Amino acid sequence: MDQFRRKFLEEASDLLEQLEKILLKIENEDAITTHVEEIFRVMHTLKGNSSMFGFEAVSEFTHYLENIYDDIRKDELELSSQIISVTLSSVDHLRSILQDENLEGASNKVNHENMMKAIKELSSISNTPNNSSEEPKVNKSQEGASTWYVKFKPAKDIFHSGSNPLYFIDDLSQLGIILTIADLSDVPELPELDPNACYVTWYNFIYTKNEDDIRDIFLFADAQSELVVEKISENNLINSPNFSDDLKEASLSDNIGISIKTLLDKYSIISPEEPIQENDLPRNSSKMESAISSIRVSSNKVDEMMSLVSELVTAQARLNVLTQNTTDNKVSEITESIEKITRRIRDNSFSICLVPFETIVVRFQRLIRDLSTQLNKNVKLITEGTDTELDKNIIENLSDPILHILRNCLDHGIESKEERIASGKQAQGTILLKAFYTGSNVNIQITDDGKGIDFTRVKKKAEEKKSYS
To answer: CATH number for the 356-464 domain, one of 3.40.50.2300, 3.30.420.10, 3.30.565.10, 1.10.443.10?
Structure first.
């Protein structure tokens, strides 16, 4: 269980970073519908996962936030700068309570109470309180939607990976109006039943817009799970009384799978030349392949690998010295081959340790946003060359110095809006953070369009501290 909790904490950290990126992006763009959907999905995922692993404080806290963005999705609440600010503060708080799940720290407990109060006040702004028991309504976000058939048959051992199939169904239900049938026909008699195995198949009919959103929900399901996603109608069959009656009849049949096939034949818009295939594993497998094109590795393992590579390179050098004193051509060939392989392993290992500069850019964007608000200055951060790669240890050590320089740009470099306008500048100040290669070196450049350094003031300060000569 500890292994799964560690995995959850890593995924939660990634979700919070993703959420922070979206929130910072949403302030600078007009089209926010997509971003609101992304925020809602991140919160819903975080809520479900935290509940599953016993982080009740995180689950409850995220539940209230999720309700706010659910109201925004339904056009019952307008997204405001206040909501974004509270959500950003919530991201910081969530990071804290993920490390203090029982709120044992006094500051975390007080901050938790204050944040809950602020979120509940935002929830009360909505004209219609969120109620999960209410029947879902089609809103503007569902314009252009279709009815989709989604069959989900989890792998029998899906519980072994820490997954809960019900969370996938719950996430699916958030995409639109849904009708679901659980097929229990494969559940064995009690003596043969394995409590750690999953025997249920879910047949879902959902009225929503995007196939990719549906498939994304099941992206991290076990590769052996069966997933079928097919569009069956451009219309909303879910609200059709005839369809509902036929589906209810199918759920009561002795063989639900066959009854569902009959139902699809009756309502599907797919032509006879393109029948629905019950086994959609090839398409699902391709999704899984793309999902595992990259893997999460502990930084300790990477450091250990680099240490071993260094020892390998040293051993290879010693082998080369010994080989120079032999006349055996076969030994020389083997040594040369090992040298080539060692060089490739070394170069590949170094590349694994390189991470793009953009991995730490979010915290800089957040700093500029928060500090410019505190100082009542209008400042924009522009980044260039964020795909430039550096060693992960260097990246970590660079973070604090860059934060300090950016603070200086805001505190001392860029003037207030009134001063800038008076001096003929644009009201909004700009800070440029740029990373670029120069030969084998990486340069990081920070510039701003402020008033620059007041050398007279610097000299005076140095003289006061008796450090000027």
So the answer is: 3.30.565.10
